[in-house]
Design brief:
Number of domains: 4
Largest sheet: 6 strands, antiparallel
Radius of gyration: 59 Å
Distance between the termini: 170 Å
Strand order of the largest sheet: 7-6-11-10-9-8
């Protein structure tokens, strides 16, 4: 049986899915797109399955893009491959059987052929690797329909090939172009899609059918060819738009458009008018197109395409059953007059619907562009304003409102100079605005705006103007850069430079730290004092970078910066510490630490170190001179008194013996007269050295004046031990001395008073030791005499 008429269907793949004939880019060549039975044990997720089908999913965004029906069908086909083949076979059999049934009644003509649209839709949905199986299933369906109506098996099989050829050619052309999804809203694309998916495949299929029939030696080849072309082109052209529109839509949108009351009304009215016009009215196609044109203006493309498909099926059925008389034919080509007028009547509504969709789309894009521009203008992170030619505000950015502390309703319609300070207003009105209107633009003009709270903002203004065709200024757009903080930063930078110069010019060492006590700055004096570089100090804790010890005992002292930051207050008084130098040696400094407070919080600390090394040394020297004999360096009477008081307190507390010795040189005056005062002084110094050699570190040797010395033994076990020390001293003093090249010899008289028998306080001990010394002199000198209380002497 010769196949009567045949449209073709289309799926909707994305343009980037159509990779031409390159096998490497074919989704079918992807291992994930293998045409194999679906494994329910590893059911793919929607994104994975769509990726397997060769569908590029949208990237992540705030709104997920709806999944097209084409993609859903492709996923289903991947999951149910054998069921897909069965559907392909049954669909081809159904559409072919319907055409056979309509064209087999006596006196009836060939029906419109819709089967190829079914096959085309399958090929657009399936990956190319599955095409052979799908074409085989569709071919078996067509063959089964032809055999069911009594066609010869060989002829029926032969004429299945042109149908499959039309499906493949249409699918290949549409997928190669990749623009068939845009026929909904572009009439030019729709015409191209009709050419690729309907007319060209129908011509090729007709040529193939004619050639095969001629080779088979069949009669009426030319007549059949014209009928084939007419039925195929009309069927595919009228069913193709709704097929592609459905595949390119998502389920929700399709449901909203097709199952709408207006769509149903259009379908019923269009079918009713078609029936009435075909059966009862002259020039039926003129009336038939009227409701479709009205629907094309008011409804969406998919609704109009559905109505066109219903009218096509209705009118095709009436014509196939002979209810509409065919015009008289005198030539074979006039068979085109059977269905071609129907195509001519149904195409304008489709083109008009596509044009209406294009207008709607462009209008929506324009509105979106306006909204994006408005949103970009208002939300841009810059201070922007637009004014008309009189200087009144017609648009402001959100940042400008925030910086000015104003609301949009408060500013629109007011003059821009209302929000300037008086000097800026005069500058703008006399210079800036006239120059802007004349030149059309300006850059970096400094003005001052007045905030709603009375504060001033320094801004740099750059502007440009929009002009009409006659050159008149329509509006001006100004970008304002807030330089208030920049100027403040410049002032702070200048202040920082001045502060740094000041710190580097003062004579004291200055070291600053952050809130964690880590050094951030050290002036040159500090670097010199420490013998370190700024890089070596930077970032180190103050107590770690500076080696500081107690002035008196050399013990390490706590970190004053850490203590200051913890207590959030300055030291009560500066402290003196020994500061180590990296190259060796040390300095005595007076250290003062204070916190740095900003906005009520401690941001660091500053330490000032005043070098008092020379002053400290001089103070020590003066203190030493005040408490020591200038000639011998021994402690003087003042220091002796202090140590005697401390020794007595310790002796009382520990109940131990304290001995005090008065020593007077015998014959010192004669030596002084003989050898001179210089030699006498030298003798005194040698005596002092010999005394120190015989004493412990805890003992004290003192020169009272002239040739009188005092020795303090603060801790002795007994009076006998004190006597042993006294005799050792007497022996050491009696050894010869070298004076002026001559050996001389002197002796000494030593008087000893021991606590508590020799006195309970320092006055009595001093007096009694002095008495004992004079007693020793009276007894012949060069001897030791212990003071004894009167009671002891009587006994």
């Amino acid at each position: 049986m010769i196949r009567r008429r045949g449209p073709e269907g289309e799926p909707g793949e994305r343009p980037d899915d159509d990779r031409g004939d390159d096998p490497g880019s074919d989704p079918g060549n992807d291992p994930g797109n293998e045409w194999m039975p679906f494994d329910p044990g590893r059911r793919p997720t929607w994104p994975a399955a769509l990726a397997q089908a060769g569908v590029d999913l949208p990237g992540p965004g705030p709104v997920e893009e709806p999944v097209r029906i084409e993609e859903q069908l492709r996923l289903w086909a991947l999951q149910q491959p054998w069921l897909t083949l069965l559907v392909a076979l049954l669909g081809a059999w159904f559409w072919s059987s319907a055409a056979m049934w309509l064209s087999r009644f006596p006196g009836q003509v060939a029906a419109i052929w819709y089967t190829n649209v079914w096959g085309l839709a399958l090929l657009l949905v399936l990956p190319r690797r599955a095409w052979p199986a799908a074409l085989l299933a569709a071919g078996l369906g067509i063959l089964g329909a032809n055999l069911a109506y009594g066609d010869d098996v060989g002829l029926a099989a032969l004429l299945v090939l042109p149908n499959l050829l039309e499906m493949v050619v249409a699918a290949w052309l549409l997928r190669r172009g990749g623009d068939h999804r845009r026929l909904l809203h572009d009439p030019a694309v729709m015409l191209q899609v009709m050419l690729k998916g309907s007319l060209l495949p129908a011509v090729l299929g007709t040529a193939a059918a004619s050639a095969l029939m001629a080779l088979a030696g069949l009669n009426q080849t030319v007549q059949v060819a014209w009928g084939w072309l007419d039925s195929s082109a009309v069927g595919s052209a009228t069913l193709l738009p709704i097929t592609l529109a459905v595949l390119a839509s998502d389920a929700r949108t399709l449901r909203d458009h097709l199952f709408d009351g207006r769509t149903a009304a259009l379908a019923l009215i269009s079918v009713g008018v078609a029936l009435l016009a075909i059966l009862m009215l002259p020039f039926p196609y003129v009336y038939m197109v009227l409701p479709l044109v009205l629907g094309a203006v008011r409804l969406r493309f998919v609704s109009v395409a559905a109505a066109v498909a219903l009218v096509s099926v209705t009118v095709g059925t009436l014509i196939a059953q002979g209810l509409f008389p065919a015009p008289p034919q005198t030539a074979h080509w006039q068979q085109l007059l059977l269905y071609t007028p129907l195509l001519a009547a149904l195409m304008p509504p489709l083109l008009l619907a596509a044009s209406a969709e294009q207008v709607r789309r462009q209008t929506l894009e324009l509105e979106r562009s306006r909204e994006r521009y408005r949103s970009l203008y208002e939300r841009t992170p810059a201070m922007m304003v637009s004014v008309d030619r009189t200087g009144r505000l017609i648009g402001v950015s959100r940042l400008w409102l925030e910086r000015m502390g104003l609301a949009r309703a408060e500013v629109i319609g007011r003059r821009l100079d209302d929000f300037m300070t008086e000097p800026a207003r005069l500058l703008a009105s006399l210079q800036v605005w006239p120059a802007l209107l004349n030149a059309g633009s300006c850059r970096d003009v400094e003005l001052e705006l007045a905030r709603s709270d009375g504060l001033a903002i320094d801004v740099l203004v750059s502007a440009t103007t929009d002009r009409a065709s006659d050159g008149q200024v329509l509006r001006a757009h100004l970008v304002l850069e807030d330089i208030t903080r920049k100027r403040l930063a410049e002032q702070l930078a200048a202040e920082h430079v001045r502060s740094k110069v000041t710190l580097e010019s003062i004579a004291d060492a200055v070291i600053t730290s952050d809130a964690r006590g880590r050094i951030t700055y050290a002036n040159p004096v500090a670097l010199t004092l420490l013998g370190q570089t700024e890089a070596a100090l930077q970032g180190r804790p103050y107590g770690e970078a500076l080696v500081r010890r107690d002035v008196d005992n050399g013990a390490e002292v706590p970190d004053p910066v850490a203590l200051c930051l913890q207590q959030r207050r300055r030291q009560v008084a500066p402290q003196r510490v020994r500061l180590a130098h990296a190259g060796g040696g040390e300095h005595v400094v007076q250290e003062s630490v204070s916190p740095m407070v900003a906005d009520g919080r401690v941001i660091g600390a500053v330490a000032v170190l005043h070098d008092i090394t020379e002053a400290h040394a001089m103070a020590l020297q003066l203190a030493h001179r005040a408490q020591h004999d200038a000639l011998t360096g021994l402690p003087n009477r003042l220091l002796l008194h202090d140590r005697l008081v401390q020794g007595l307190q310790l002796a009382r507390r520990q109940r131990r013996v304290l001995a005090l010795m008065f020593i007077d040189l015998d014959g010192f005056k004669a030596i002084n007269d003989r050898f001179g005062h210089a030699s006498g002084d030298a003798l005194l110094c040698q005596v002092a050295e010999r005394l120190l050699e015989q004493l412990r570190a805890s003992d004290t040797a003192c020169r009272l004046g002239g040739d009188e010395f005092v020795v303090l033994l603060p801790q002795v076990e007994s009076v006998i031990d004190a006597g042993r020390v006294a005799h050792n001293l007497l022996e050491a003093i009696s050894r010869p001395y070298a004076l002026a090249g001559t050996l001389v010899q002197v002796s000494a008289s030593i008087g000893v008073a021991c606590h508590p028998e020799g006195g309970l306080d320092e006055v009595s001990l001093m007096r009694n030791a002095d008495r004992a010394m004079y007693e020793a002199k009276q007894r012949g000198r060069n001897q030791v005499h212990f003071f004894a209380p009167p009671a002891a002497r009587t006994a």
